[in-house]
Design a protein that fits this description.
CATH class: Alpha Beta
Protein name: Acyl dehydratase
CATH superfamily: Hotdog Thioesterase
Pfam families: MaoC_dehydratas
Radius of gyration: 17 Å
Shape: elongated
Organism: Paraburkholderia eburnea
Strand content: 25-35%
Helix content: 10-25%
Number of domains: 1
InterPro entries: HotDog_dom_sf (IPR029069), MaoC-like_dom (IPR002539)
Largest sheet: 5 strands, antiparallel
Number of helices: 3
Length: about 140
Amino acid sequence: MDKLDYDAIEVGQTLPPLALPPVDRKMLALFAGASGDHNAVHIDIDFARRAGMPDVFAHGMLSMAWLGRLLTQWVDQRQLRQFGVRFVGITHLGHRITCTGRVVEKFEADGERRLRLVIQTANQYGESRVVGDAVIAV
């Protein structure tokens, strides 16, 4: 990760995308163990079907973690000032998620030069699954 030059960054600039492997059951089980979120709808196909879903699906917080990774591959986590998301779609098994971000504003606050970003996850069909924004200090 290189140090960013605030003056060289332009509104509209994009972050390097983060492409992830297809979501599978092992990934969901590992995230459940790591996060402590053992909600059965994410790991038990019978439970998911009783809940009206065709199969298990990814934790929303897994997608948020991926967006956090997108940001921290661009800047040090200590530069993160704000990070929020909305869950707008379900990430199903087999989805190949790509995380993207774009600079939408440059501003100063609390004596710091900052960037506001829009971020999202989308599946291989281009459907947004999680959308959000972040503010980083440069």
